[in-house]
């Protein structure tokens, strides 16, 4: 078991006091047998009324409602989590899904249908051409081996570049440019996996990494693929690795735009700046600063 302290600070500064609409916060990690929250503190200024619930994906959301106007909004999350996923390869795939291609069972298919549908019903030729370099019909291969190969291929094809602009690049733009943010690379992997017939979903969270600040994002994104018998298994194409105990998932979704860490509205003035900082410390270890 490893323990991490996660400090996530977001500050919005406005040109004058604004009316703050309801803000949706996705900052609390997804708990389970492999991840437990030891302590959690959420501080918001100006003061807000919080209502907690889970969305259709089972993500934990805090809805923050404000009464007072303000020219500055500060949202600060402090977490200590326990991560138990020390052996991410300790799983067994059902016999009928070991070899690729395979078909999901009639029992699972209704639940997985949304994760099998490509964002673009007609994948671009550039994506299909790249997929052909990963696997050719007729090749005998294990399902997990194909996904591992796809994960590494995306990592080798696309260079990571921090991108502050909102939204996600298309797979064609990522392949053509040869670079992308972690969310762009995750979507490329996810789209290719779906074209291969795997159920895939987007994951937003944190990653404890030794990369320097200029090469790491304030949060991190990767993908999960459903393998019968093994469940949802994480793949991080930005780093070309299998997701393990250095990844802390916060929210999952079919599409990346569905799970921003913070989303809300304001009115009455303009936004001057938004500053985000995330610092992850392995307790009794070293501190990795992911953003200024």
TrEMBL record:
Domain of life the protein comes from: Bacteria
Pfam families noted in UniProt: Bact_transglu_N, Transglut_core
Segments forming domain Transglutaminase-like: 174-239
Matching InterPro entries: Bac_transglu_N, Papain-like_cys_pep_sf, Transglutaminase-like
Gene3D superfamilies: 3.10.620.30
Coiled coil: none
PANTHER family tied to this protein: BLR5614 PROTEIN-RELATED, SLL1233 PROTEIN
Name of the protein in its database record: Transglutaminase family protein
Protein species of origin: Cyanobium gracile UHCC 0281
């Amino acid at each position: 078991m490893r323990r991490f302290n996660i400090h996530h600070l977001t500050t919005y500064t406005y040109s004058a006091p604004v009316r703050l609409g309801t803000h949706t916060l996705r900052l609390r990690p997804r708990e389970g047998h492999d991840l437990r929250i030891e302590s959690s503190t959420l501080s918001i200024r100006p003061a807000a009324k919080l209502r907690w619930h889970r969305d259709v994906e089972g993500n934990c959301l805090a809805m923050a409602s404000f009464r007072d106007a303000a020219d500055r909004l500060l949202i600060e999350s402090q977490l200590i989590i326990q991560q138990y996923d020390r052996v991410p390869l300790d799983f067994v795939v059902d016999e009928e899904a070991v070899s690729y291609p395979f078909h999901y069972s009639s029992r699972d298919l209704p639940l997985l249908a949304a994760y099998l549908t490509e964002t673009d019903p007609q994948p671009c030729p550039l994506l299909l051409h790249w997929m052909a370099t990963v696997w050719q019909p007729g090749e005998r291969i294990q399902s997990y081996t194909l996904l591992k190969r796809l994960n590494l291929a995306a990592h080798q094809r696309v260079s990571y570049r921090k991108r502050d602009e909102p939204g996600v690049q298309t797979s064609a733009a990522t392949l053509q440019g040869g670079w992308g943010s972690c969310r762009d690379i995750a979507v490329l992997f996810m789209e290719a996996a779906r074209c291969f017939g795997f159920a895939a979903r987007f994951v937003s969270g944190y990653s404890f990494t030794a990369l320097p600040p200029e090469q790491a994002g304030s949060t991190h994104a990767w993908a999960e693929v459903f393998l019968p018998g093994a469940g949802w298994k994480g793949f991080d194409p930005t780093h070309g690795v299998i997701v393990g105990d250095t990844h802390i998932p916060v929210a999952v979704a079919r599409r990346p735009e569905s799970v921003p860490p913070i989303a809300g509205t304001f009115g009455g003035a303009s936004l001057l700046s938004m500053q985000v900082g995330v610092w992850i410390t392995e307790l009794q270890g070293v501190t990795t600063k992911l953003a200024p």
